[in-house]
Amino acid sequence: MPEISDKLEAILQSLPHRPGIYLHKDAEGVVLYVGKATDLRQRVRSYFGDPQELGPKNRALVAHIADIEFIVVGSEIEALILENEYIKRYQPKYNVRLRDDKNYPYIKVSLNEDFPRVYRVRNFRRDGARYFGPYTSSGAVDATLDLMNKIFPYRTCRYDASGWAPPRGREDDPPPDWKLKLLPRPCTQFYIHRCNAPCVGRVSREQYDEVIQQVMLFLEGKHDEVLVNLRREMDEAAENLEFERAASLRDRVRAVEQVLEKQKIINTTGADDQDVIALASGDDETCAQVFFFRGGRLTGREFFILQGTRDTPESEIMQMFLQQFYDQAPHVPGELILAYEPENAEALRAWLRQKRGAAVTLTTPQRGDKLRLVAMVAQNAREVLEQQRIKWLSDSQKTALALDELRDMLNLPAPPRRIECFDISNTQGSNSVGSMVVLENGRPKSSDYRRFRIKTIEGANDVASLQEVLSRRFKRMAADMAEAAEATSDGEPSAEVEDASVDEEAAEVEQAEQVEQEAGEDGAPPNEEGVSPDMLGNPWAQAPDLVIVDGGRPQLNAAVEALAALDVRVPVIGIAKENHGSISTYEEIYLMDQPEPVVLPRASQGLYLLQRVRDEAHRFAITYHRNLRSARTFRSVLDEIPGIGPKRKKALVRHFGSARAIAAASVEDIAAVDGMNHDLAERVKEFIGSGRAVGPDDQAG
User: Fold this and answer.
1) Rounded CA separation 445/211 (Å)
2) pLDDT per residue over 466-510, tens digit each?
3) pTM of the full predicted structure?
4) I want to staple 132 with a disulfide (CB 3.0 to 4.6 A). Which of 107, 332, 414, 691 is the partner?
């Protein structure tokens, strides 16, 4: 047990065996973490046991705890509710929390006023109105409101409507002091059929209420009920010879049907309301994606970003998201289909039951249609996380600020215009590859990305592999710059630098690159090392203003040594997640002339840029590594089929791209490939279709 102060020891001794919440504070009294427990004494004391049993995040937390406050409550559910309130109040650094840079918008139906309105608000209150949301995009809310106002003619004005009809329940006997106060004429909304003008007595309160009921059914996703009601009204209008009203209702029916057509793409078999929730985690943030199913039909989706999730189990992230999201959500569905089983599931169920007023099922599917739904939502979460990364990198103000911070931190003469970041990837030493990604003016320049196959290093030696990659990159730069200088002095165009032709290994990955083009913003796929430069200039000949390597002091020393051997003078830094024995959860920046790493503030735009470019280099290296591994597996599959030689193998690789694609293809499709015939196609189909030769990267799940 680590040494703790007398103050903390006294607090630990005084903790009761009761449910409650606890607040870890630092020396300045800042709340670092808020937690809940069914047994406060047992839970809080667990932080101060063997440090090896704690994760990196909790070790960092314990190192800063100077005081502990606790509150005893009556039950675990009360602890859960109170924990959520305190997290929102203090936004503790070590808690998983919804990013709180804005209030999420809702759609409000003001049932607490005469002739209710439907409009967007930023806060959810329990004031008798109906709220729908929260939504992450104000634009999506406005688009929904505009669509609904085209379908349902409700008022959007802010007039006091109390004088347009007698108070509810007093229609036949209005109060003596009440007077009918209609407006002299309707507004433009009436003439463009977006309001039925209760302000001039065009409709009764009952008729207007029917429209509002249809609006709420529509927002609840009960579109079938809306259609039934509209068609009934349309038939009644036609029978009463109200042909103009019947035509208007017919147009509204068609508009709702068009909405339904867009929602037939995805549905579930459940008759009750369902929310499907999945997570995708980045460096210190997680995207929670929610798909809303109402009556078995997808009615909407939203994503939310959670911060402080580094080194946090998915089960805890899921629990914290459910607590914070459904605390503010006006509607709790009957079933939550989750990618991960949340912590404290029983307490969550009881709390959600209180919120809903009925039982709530938490389902973590292992197979079947629900698992496929979760996989689809998880894919959307990953896409959102990537879009958020690209969005940040494309923000010129943030990237300019980040580059200025890097200039100051590294004592550079100017903000680094061109940044190159290098990373290594392998699987237990096999298929080792390197990647180089490039930022220009803080933005990715994917046409200059480069891949490297490690040629001289055996086994898992990331440091030596990094040296090889840097040596090859800067030798190429020196050669191209020397050739350009020679061509200029001779006054004649120079010959091509010796270009590595597409060798056998490049052919191996060709099929993988056809499947997943690593296209950049300009649509140009990143070039393999040795491919001729593009028409815009030679990327190899451009010297970077800053080199970043993924790793700590060993990687930085290797990079400095490689550049010194080539007499290349470029600033080099290393960036590493400090999770190897240290209690720090910050990124550490290693500099050439400083023995100790630099720790930038978490809110630093410079740190954010370094993290993003490091993650991009890692992603690029991992993708290339997987493609190589998959291609080699595919090659071994085809090598085992009698009658399939190098030419036919290459033709099949080019045409289909994977063994799984061949297994899914028909015999006729395979026979149509150059060099193939019907007998060979049947042989290939039988061999691969049997699954005997499909490797781990090609086997269907």
Assistant:
1) 53
2) 999 999 999 988 888 777 777 656 554 443 333 333 333 444 444
3) 0.47
4) 107
pLDDT of residue 538: 74
Q: Let me know whether 363 and 454 are in one domain.
A: no
Q: What is the extent of the structural domain holding 316?
A: 274-391
Rg of the chain over CA atoms, in angstroms? 32
Reply yes or no on whether the pLDDT at 531 is more than 80. no
Q: What is the pLDDT of residue 694?
A: 43
Helix (H, G, I), strand (E, B) or coil at 450: strand
pLDDT at 339: 93
pLDDT one-digit tens code per residue, 555-564: 999 999 999 9
Evaluate whether residue 563 is within a structural domain.
Answer: yes
Using alpha carbons, select from 627, 645, 648 the residue that is nearest to residue 508. 627
Whole-number average pLDDT of the chain: 79
Q: Are residues 202 and 313 in the same domain?
A: no
- The DSSP call for residue 598 is B
One domain for residues 59 and 79: yes
User: 430-455 burial, b for 16+ CB within 10 Å, e for fewer?
Assistant: ebbbbbbbbbeebebbbbbbbbbbbe
The percent of the chain in helix, strand and coil, each rounded to the nearest 5, is 45, 15, 40
Mean pLDDT value of segment 135-164: 82
- Residue 530 in any domain: the answer is yes
| Residues 83 and 162 grouped into a single domain | no
The neighbour count for residue 120, using CB atoms within 10 Å, is: 15
Within a domain: 434: yes
Together in a domain, 496 and 604 = yes
| DSSP code for 162 | G
Looking at the structure, do residues 419 and 568 belong to the same domain, yes or no? yes
Number of domains present in the structure of the chain: 4
* pLDDT at residue 115 tops 80: yes
Distance (Å, whole) CA 663 – CA 652: 12
On whether residue 294 sits in a domain, the answer given is: yes
Number of residues assigned to the chain:
701
> Could you tell me which of 165, 146, 251, 147 has the C-alpha nearest to residue 208?
165
Q: Are residues 436 and 366 both part of a single domain?
A: no
State which of 610, 626, 642 marks the end of a domain. 626
> 382 and 314 share a domain?
yes
CB neighbours of 523 closer than 8 A, spacing ≥ 6? none
Answer with the one of 579, 610, 626 that is the final residue of a domain: 626
**167 has a pLDDT exceeding 80:** yes
The two three-digit tokens of residue 547, written as one number: 């080199």
